[in-house]
């Protein structure tokens, strides 16, 4: 019995850590009422917006009506939702998010001073990521300088970037060494995240020309959601004119996952410094 309880706790821990994926999945709609309660009431549920909880519950409730043999009516849906509403962290929601709720649901929710921990990338998630790998071409390097486009790319399905494997050749690390991901569009680009490479845990490698090579798996502070068929650009800046990136080559454009194939398209002639993307699938959006 103790072993079963321990297994249940570990499963719940993983579900909570991957809450931003679990709540968007079809599997959530199949859960029992008790399981949904265990997830929704936990302050450690790892999500970026409390609106995700409402959206998940609004998908789950009609399915629960069917399982209970009840008609899918507004009254029956509200009846299924009612036990959960007092646990939703309503105070964490912006006015815009609140306005997205159905009026019937909004009228049943009251402020409750409940809050959740901020969205993050826990250690446990790294063991469940898929990796898109690149190999290093030892013959070519490029100075980062004022700006170096490391790669432009898009995926055929939406997913969450969790970590980035990066390689750089420097004689001495600059204090400020940003790596930025930008979402490109016809009208305006938007910044997805910026990380300071100088703060990463680097592993020393062989010398590359007059510099030493360093490699690191950089775990993002928060999962970064990438939209399908949208072009993103990753670039770095080094004002010290000291750092170089070796050229890398994509090993395969396709990664087989539990939910199907994930394909990447490259929109730049060369790739610099990137040796891997660690990602988690946005379940339900992957093509078989």
TrEMBL record:
Any one biological process term the GO annotation gives: neurogenesis
Q: Where is the BACK domain?
A: 2-64
Pfam families (UniProt xref): BACK (PF07707)
The transmembrane residues are none
The protein's superkingdom reads Eukaryota
One GO cellular component term, please give it.
Answer: cytosol
Give the signal sequence positions.
Answer: none
Which Gene3D superfamilies does this UniProt record tie to the protein? 1.25.40.420
Any idea what this protein is called?
BACK domain-containing protein
Originating species: Stegodyphus mimosarum
Lineage, please? Eukaryota, Metazoa, Ecdysozoa, Arthropoda, Chelicerata
């Amino acid at each position: 019995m103790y072993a079963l309880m321990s297994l249940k706790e570990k499963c719940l821990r993983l579900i909570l850590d991957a809450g931003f994926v679990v709540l968007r999945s079809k599997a959530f709609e199949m859960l029992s009422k008790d399981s949904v309660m265990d997830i929704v009431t936990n302050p450690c549920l790892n999500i970026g917006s409390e609106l995700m909880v409402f959206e998940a519950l609004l998908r789950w409730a009609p399915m629960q009506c069917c399982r209970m043999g009840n008609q899918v009516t507004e009254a029956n849906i509200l009846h299924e939702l009612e036990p959960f509403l007092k646990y939703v962290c309503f105070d964490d929601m912006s006015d815009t998010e609140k306005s997205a709720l159905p009026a019937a649901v909004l009228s049943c929710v009251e402020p409750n001073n409940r809050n959740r921990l901020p969205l993050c990338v826990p250690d446990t998630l790294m063991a469940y990521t898929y990796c898109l790998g690149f190999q290093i071409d030892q013959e070519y390097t490029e100075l980062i300088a004022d700006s170096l486009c490391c790669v432009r790319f898009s995926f055929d399905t939406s997913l969450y970037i969790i970590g980035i494997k990066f390689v750089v050749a420097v004689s001495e690390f600059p204090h400020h060494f940003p790596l930025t991901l930008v979402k490109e569009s016809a009208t305006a680009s938007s910044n997805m995240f910026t990380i300071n490479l100088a703060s990463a845990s680097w592993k020393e490698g062989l010398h590359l020309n007059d510099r030493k090579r360093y490699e690191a798996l950089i775990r993002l502070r928060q999962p970064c959601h990438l939209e399908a068929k949208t072009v993103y650009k990753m670039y770095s800046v080094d004002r010290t004119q000291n750092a170089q990136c070796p050229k890398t080559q994509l090993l395969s454009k396709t990664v087989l996952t539990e939910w199907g194939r994930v394909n990447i398209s490259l929109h730049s002639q060369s790739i610099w410094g990137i040796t891997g993307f660690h990602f988690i699938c946005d379940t339900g959006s992957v093509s078989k």
